[in-house]
Amino acid sequence: MALTDSYIHEVTRRLPENMRTDIALELRSTIDDMLPDNFSEEDEKGVLNQLGNPVILANGYADRPMHLIGPRYYDVYVTLLKMIVPIAAAISLLSIVTKYIISYKPNEAILSFILGIVGSGFVTMLEVGMAVFFWLTLIFAVAERINKDSDQQPLTFNLTKWTADDLKHIVPIPKKKEISKLSVFTNLMWIAIFTTLYFYANQIVGIYMTIADRLTFVMPAINQEVLQFYGPFVIFVIVLAVIFEIYKLLKHQWTKRMAVMNLLLQTVSTVLSIVIIKNANFLNPEFITFISEQFNLTNWQFNTWIIGGVVLTVIISAILGVYEGFKKASIRL
Question: Could you tell me the pTM of the whole model?
Fold first, then answer.
């Protein structure tokens, strides 16, 4: 009976202390009933093989799952994970950019400043993603063990049993109408880059020359005082743009309402951009003189070709963005 003793030990050591004695007696009685008189070791092995793996048998007695998150909650868990992690990562990235911009010191090297944003942003997004993963997994693992319902049918997102009525709330999304998380993150990254360039344009945007074998910033292209004057309006548009990107992330597809919102946002941002660019003091006079001399331009030609070209580019870009939004929103199955 050495094999039987070992088998019972393997089962009972996985059980709570107060259950072990009773289960050991019950299990030994079951094995004795299954064995023939004058049994051999092979007979004993056959019976134990019928009873199966001690781990599975022990979990059956303890009535606890052998998985962290079972089929009942798995789909809801994965859906929430895909929804919450990108939003939390996006918010953390924006908070890091805002924190760096507010704490920027004029004597700080701009390259170090940008690398700091990229490095801290990546680390913070990773930390936030891991924290969300941990807590969400913990909540569902606890729910799995608290729930005593033996029904393991997967639940819907509303934590109810699936019925045919649930199909009424599902609309298949064509691939061309879908909004990818990558596109939203790319747009958020561009918003962060634009914000940095806008508020530190006098240190980043301008003429660079090689002096003593080093690329040196020698002349700003834009008058920072003009940008600062329109700063509150620009921040307002940036906040709207961030909210719109998060809204796209939640909706996951283009809709007519979203296309209209995109139209309004593009209109506001385009008008504001043109007002700023057309400001007579927008560009640094020294920069205008330098560029005019390099290309043999008059002031009229400079305003027509350079400023006019930028304004035209902004308008065309906005029109294409609006057209693309309505085009995707109108796609049907």
Answer: 0.61
